[in-house]
């Protein structure tokens, strides 16, 4: 028994772990996610909810994968979570972590104490932050690190309900420094109350390395590029927006009135799927789109024009879409229509 390497209790009705678990000196993976009745985990941390005693997670020095998503509103959890976070941070062989942080400060505590965060490691993580009524607007500032350049914010079964309330990812009013300056890939899915990615000022250096944005199933999302955001996206190559029913403009004119023709200089692919209210990508054909190579559009029936003319988007190679949509497009003139007709691929 002491040689057991994997304990998977996820999705069970277990309320307490046996003390004998601490004897598993070869344990590599422990899964306690989606255990709503779990209120005692003394075998891991030597504590019971409501009793502040010494946590001993770090005794499992062989542990590589750990998943604990005790609800942050669970009685007593807030009293011992700081201890647990410090102990989890001491797991030197940890490669995968799923955890519930009641406050952003607890996430920040983990980032500061974990040696895995300070070197080029293979640590992957899935976390939730906040209580049921939290908006979690400053989560991402805590994980800005050059060795962790992919952020996935996915709301699904087993993730804390507090993240259902997120309305914006970064609030620029609450920081005076660059945020997410190392982030390369941003993936956001199933965040039902998300209204914008960024709110407030976008300080110099923010989003400097961001190359890919994917936004999927965010029904309240209205603004993709807030004021001042596009000017920082000099490395953006791929944009994908899927099933975001409130989106009317990909680049909102009201937020980007002074946009220069050279905006989004490296954007190569643009994918727009299931956007029923989308009416335009950009207000006119003033942008150069110097690197754009491919466009894919499906089930965007209100989009009746594209922001192109005879001289821009010179590297565009294909426009993929449904034939019915293509037939209803309005063009500036016949010469422009003829130019892009040769690039059309039936969806």
Describe the protein.
There is one protein chain. The protein is α/β, with parallel strands linked by helices. Helix content is 12%, strand content 20%. It contains five helices and 15 strands. It has helices at 42-45, 77-89, 104-113, 323-328, 334-341; strands at 6-8, 29-32, 65-68, 96-101, 124-129, 150-154, 168-171, 185-189, 196-199, 212-216, 238-242, 269-273, 294-298, 318-321, 344-346. It has an eight-stranded parallel β-sheet. Strands 1-2-3-4-5 form a five-stranded parallel β-sheet, with helices on one face. It has a two-stranded parallel sheet with strand order 7-9. Helix 3 links the parallel strand 4 (96-101) and strand 5.
Parts with pLDDT < 50 across at least 5 consecutive residues: 45-56, 131-148, 155-162
What structural class results from the helix and strand content? Answer: alpha/beta
End-to-end Cα distance: 56 Å
Strand order of the largest sheet: 6-8-10-11-12-13-14-15
Order of helices and strands: EEHEHEHEEEEEEEEEEHHE
> What composes the largest sheet?
8 strands, parallel
Instruction: State the helical fraction.
Output: 10-25%
Q: DSSP strand (E) fraction?
A: 15-25%
How many beta-strand segments?
Answer: 15
Number of helices: 5
Describe the structure in brief.
The chain is α/β, with parallel strands linked by helices and 347 residues long.
């Amino acid at each position: 028994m002491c040689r057991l390497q994997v304990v998977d209790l996820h999705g069970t009705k277990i309320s307490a772990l046996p003390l004998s678990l601490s004897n598993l000196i070869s344990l590599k993976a422990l899964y306690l996610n989606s255990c709503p009745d779990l209120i005692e985990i003394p075998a891991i941390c030597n504590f019971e909810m409501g009793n502040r005693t010494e946590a001993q997670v770090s005794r499992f020095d062989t542990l590589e994968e750990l998943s604990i998503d005790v609800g942050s509103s669970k009685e007593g959890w807030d009293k011992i979570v700081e201890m647990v976070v410090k102990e989890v941070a001491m797991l030197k062989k940890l490669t995968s972590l799923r955890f519930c942080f009641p406050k952003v400060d607890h996430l920040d505590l983990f980032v500061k104490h974990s040696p895995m965060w300070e070197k080029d490691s293979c640590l992957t993580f899935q976390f939730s932050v906040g209580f049921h009524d939290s908006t979690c607007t400053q989560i991402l500032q805590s994980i800005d690190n050059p060795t962790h350049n992919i952020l996935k914010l996915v709301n699904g079964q087993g993730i804390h309900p507090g993240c259902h309330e997120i309305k914006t990812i970064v609030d620029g009013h609450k920081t005076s420094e660059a945020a997410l300056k190392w982030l390369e890939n941003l993936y956001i899915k199933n965040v039902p109350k998300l209204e914008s990615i960024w709110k407030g000022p976008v300080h110099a250096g923010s989003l400097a390395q961001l190359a890919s944005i994917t936004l999927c199933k965010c029904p309240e999302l209205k603004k993709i590029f807030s004021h001042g955001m596009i000017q920082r996206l000099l490395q953006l190559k791929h944009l994908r927006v899927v099933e975001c029913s409130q989106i009317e403009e990909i680049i909102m004119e009201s937020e980007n009135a002074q946009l220069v023709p050279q905006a989004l200089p490296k954007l190569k692919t643009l994918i727009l799927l299931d956007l029923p209210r989308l009416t335009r990508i950009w207000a006119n054909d003033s942008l150069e789109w110097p690197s754009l190579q491919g466009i894919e559009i499906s089930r965007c029936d209100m989009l009746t024009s594209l922001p192109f003319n005879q001289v821009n988007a010179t590297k565009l190679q294909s426009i993929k879409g449904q034939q019915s949509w293509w037939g209803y497009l309005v063009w500036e003139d016949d010469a422009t229509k003829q130019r892009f007709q040769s690039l059309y691929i039936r969806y």
